Each structure stands twice: as structure tokens, then as C-alpha cells.
Amino acid sequence: MNVDGVPHRTIWLAEDGWSVEIIDQTKLPHRFETLRLTSLDQAAEAIRSMQVRGAPLIGATAAYGIALAMAEDAGDAALKAAYDSLLATRPTAVNLRWALDDLYDLLQPLGANARAAAAYLRAAEICEEDVALCRAIGDRGLPLIEAIAARKGGAPVNVLTHCNAGWLATVDWGTATAPIYLAHDKGIAVKVWVDETRPRNQGASLTAWELTQHGVPHAIVADNVGGHLMQQGLVDLCIVGTDRTTRRGDVCNKIGTYLKALAARDNGVPFYVALPGPTVDWTLEDGRDVPIEERDAREVTHVTGRNEAGELATVEISNPGSPAANYAFDVTPARLVTGLITERGVCEASAEGLAGLYPERAGRAEGQGSLS
Ligand SMILES: CSC[C@@H](O)[C@@H](O)C(=O)COP(=O)(O)O
């Protein structure tokens, strides 16, 4: 995707051939800043502090985190410690465990002197694969938008999305946004309703920023507006991402997704979830078993933005001293999901639907985790 017209990814190997560069997403939309990661600890901190975030990008960063660790010490103990330290950064997005298991299974049988090179190679491959997966999700999802556009005779297709499942959440393209970008590039009129996504406002800050960069018409709405828009016939389609989808199609995604799915069902609005294969947790059936991250209450009680002097400032917005709870994700049961848009096609959100697309995974539901 482009930033001020210049093609960018969210993570890349630096010119020195060993350190890793990322876009610091905590500074967006007000400042576009990149950061250089030179150690395992910095990679772990980038994930923990959400300088990088979004399930696929968390996985890609973790893969490079292992590579950075191996560049320093490629012994067995260091490999295990790197795995454990990265796995502990964020609990919900299963792509983190997927990437770590992938690297661990590859590196563990190798001699220590071969591990660093193999880790860098595999981390780069994971990034390339993510770009291809997301592009394929776009191709698979595009017909859904095209069909609505044909029915509407050229009037804009109104898509509602929640949080940021855009290119900033992946290496490029995004998941939920990939069909939208392809539709826009094809000349189909699209308008995106962007849920602000409290408390961290990934919609208002990140999705709105990247849609602006790509020239896609959109409007930010407060989180509570979606139901009203759907009642008024102003939403043709919802597309969201997911941090972990169980093998029966229960969808864990950013907090508030479930309420949008309920409103969509009540109003007959199709509710699609876009995801790459590594976001399916084949070890879990029931979405209620997904670990839900609880973050610092300060994210609820305070907001950071730009003041009139153009400086970033954090202000308290709630009653001083009142406790706050900050659940970062919720689960939408499969029955509320119209379909899953994957790189292999669109399927029903069900065990049968996912097994039909991923027969090689569904056959061995248990045992995804190498160390977990
Ligand atoms: C393509 S990313 C899908 C999800 O990771 C996304 O919707 C989301 O919930 C991101 O949460 P975040 O807490 O910002 O990492």
C-alpha cells in the first residue's frame, strides 16, 4: 500500500540485512514514523505496546523476533526463551502462536550455527505468504461487493468495518479491507463506515488513515452508530477481521464486533469475516475458550490525540478515580456470521465449512502447538 504515494509494507528487513523496520502504529494517524528493531526484547515490546498490532502482523513480527534472538544466541535455551517471551506478549491473536510454532519446528532440529540464517529466511517467507494470502482474500471477497454493486446500479456499496483489519494489521492489503481496495481499484463505488473502535480507536486512527491514503471514501462513526445505520438501510455489508476463529467458526475479534453482528442479523445485513488460514485455531471448538486479553484500564479512562498546537497529548476523559475494565476482544458465535472469506474461498462459518476448505488441517484438529 502507499503512504503519500510511496509503496510501503508494515514490516521489512533493514538495509543492514539483519535489523527489522516497522511502522510505529502508536503514532498514527498524526505522525508517520518508522522504528528499527535490533533485539528480541525490542520485537517483544513492539508487539506488547502495539507499535505493531493486528493478528497477521503480530505473527510476522514474532517470526522476526525469533530471527533477532538467533542472531545473538542460537543455542537451545535461547530458542526456547525467545519462544516463551514472544508468546507472552499478547494472548488472543493465534497467529502469534502459529508463527512461533512454525519457526520453532523449523529451527529446533538444526544445528545452532544454521539457525539464524534459517530464521531470517522463514520470517521473510511468512511476510511474503501473508501478502499473498491477503491478496487472495481480496480476490475471493471482491465478488460479494461486485454483486451488491450490480444490484445497486452504480450507487456506492456501503461497507461497515470494525477496528483495523487493514494493511496495517497485516504485511500488506489487510484482510477485511483487501476486497474493498480491489473493488475501489476496479472503479466500483464503495463507501466505508469506519467504527471508531474504543478504547484504542484503531478504526478512527488507523483504518481511516489507510483508507485516506488509498483514496477510498469513508466516514468515521462512533461505536454505537452501526445499529442505527443498519436500521436505516445504510449498510449493505459488514466485513471484519478476526484474531482467532475456532474450528467450528466462532469468531474472536476486537471488542464490539459481537454487537455489530447482532445488529446485522436483526436487520438482515450480511456479516462476513475475512481471515487467512493461520488465524484458524484448529485446537479450539468453542469460541468461549479463546483467551480474551484484558488491557490497562488507562486505555479506557484516557485518550491520546493531537492538540491545537499540533502536539500529541493524553487527557483523562472519565471520572477521576472510577475503576474501569478493558476487555480487548469478544466472540461472535458462528451462527451470526454469514460467511468466512478466506484465501481459499468463501465458506459457511461452521466446522463443515472450514473443513471443506482446509481438509489437511481439519483432519488433525489437536496438536497445533509445538510448545504451547
Ligand atoms: C487482519 S487483523 C484482524 C484483527 O487482528 C483485528 O480486527 C483486530 O482486532 C486487531 O486488534 P489489535 O488489538 O489492534 O491488535
Spell out the key features of this protein:
single chain; 372 residues; alpha/beta; Four Helix Bundle (Hemerythrin (Met), subunit A); Rossmann fold; 7-stranded mixed β-sheet; binds 5-S-methyl-1-O-phosphono-5-thio-D-ribulose
Can you tell me the CATH class of the largest domain? Alpha Beta
**Count of the domains:** 2
Number-wise, the strands total: 18
Strand order of the largest sheet: 8-7-6-9-12-17-18
Uncertain regions spanning at least 5 consecutive residues: none
Mean pLDDT: 97
How would you sum up the global shape?
globular
Please name the fourth-level CATH homologous superfamily of the largest domain: Translation initiation factor eif-2b, domain 2
Secondary-structure-based class equals alpha/beta
CATH fold assignment of the largest domain: Rossmann fold
State the order of secondary-structure elements, H for helix, E for strand. EEEEEHHHHHEHEHEHEEEHEEHEEEEEHH
Distance between the termini: 34 Å
Describe the protein's architecture and organization.
The model has no long low-confidence stretch (mean pLDDT 97). With 372 residues, this protein is α/β, with parallel strands linked by helices. It folds into two domains: 2-129, Four Helix Bundle (Hemerythrin (Met), subunit A); 139-357, Rossmann fold (3-Layer(aba) Sandwich). The chain has twelve helices and 18 strands. It is globular and about 60 Å long. The chain has helices spanning 40-48, 55-72, 76-87, 94-107, 112-152, 177-185, 202-214, 226-231, 257-267, 298-301, 351-357, 359-362; strands spanning 2-3, 6-7, 11-13, 20-23, 34-37, 157-161, 190-195, 218-221, 237-240, 244-246, 251-254, 271-274, 280-281, 302-306, 312-316, 329-332, 339-342, 345-347. The relative contact order is 0.12. Helix 2 runs antiparallel to helix 3, helix 2 packs antiparallel against helix 5 (112-152) and helix 5 (112-152) crosses helix 6. The longest helix is centred in the middle third of the chain and has 41 residues, at 112-152. 5-S-methyl-1-O-phosphono-5-thio-D-ribulose binds at residues 53-56, 93, 163, 165, 169-170, 174-175, 202, 241-243, 253-254, 328.
